[in-house]
Amino acid sequence: MLKEERQQKILQILDDEHKVIASDLSKRLSVSEDTIRRDLKELDTQGHINRVHSGALRKGPPVVDFSTRQNISNEIKGNLARKALDFIKEGMVLLIDGGTTNLQLVNQLPLTFSAKVITNSPPIAMALINHQNIDVIMIGGTLFKQSLVNLGIDTVEALRTMRADLYIMGIYKIDPQLGISVPSLEEALVKRKMAEISNNILGMVTSDKLATISYQIICPTSDLTYLITENVNEDIKRLYNKQGIHVID
């Protein structure tokens, strides 16, 4: 098998199974582990995969700004949001951070819905302006323009005095073994504090984010209470279920 053909096969396996192990690929493709490691290093350099210890993960979606993400996979995000509504009850204190899927969820809340919403996302706060029975607490900080969320030490300090029934976490990348991650340290620190002050955590994840990793780990996936996703591989689903996460797909 030629190198180009072998590397395409690796990418195909990775797309189907979400994660590859070098020793396993060595047996499946009948080449040495050293050859597989060189392939993985080359594919990582080319930006096709993310190398991790013993193997590789899918690259996942690129980092793009909020307005661009609002035009991507809207139907899928809407479906995830509708499923999430089943876990949101009247009178809850909801902590909702940034993300286009989270915005879809807020837009689907009935105008008569009664709750308290804590958010560091100006788009989320603005989307609730006509919900007369929802009290909105807007957390300040420095506006991170790419994601349209407030971040920084002021944001973290404000969260220390709060408590939420349910944290609806915007998820950038997630892997059942490596955890939930984002590219920015500042965003990771805020999300970590949000997770700490919440009784339960719900994440809505499109399939392109599954089994992907970024630079800053927020928390282990076992911190999630609910994971709402689509087209999840059964083996991956079992890994989440073993961590006590209620997976809805």
UniProtKB/TrEMBL annotation:
One of its GO terms (molecular function) is DNA-binding transcription factor activity. Residues 3-58 form the HTH deoR-type domain. This is Lactose phosphotransferase system repressor. It comes from the Bacteria. Keywords: DNA-binding, Repressor, Transcription, Transcription regulation. Repressor of the lactose catabolism operon. Galactose-6-phosphate is the inducer. The keyword Isomerase does not apply. The keyword DNA-binding applies. InterPro entries: Carb_Metab_HTH_regulators (IPR050313), DeoR-like_C (IPR014036), DeoR_HTH (IPR001034), NagB/RpiA_transferase-like (IPR037171), Tscrpt_reg_HTH_DeoR_CS (IPR018356), WH-like_DNA-bd_sf (IPR036388), WH_DNA-bd_sf (IPR036390). SMART domains: DeoRC, HTH_DEOR. Pfam families: DeoRC (PF00455), HTH_DeoR (PF08220).
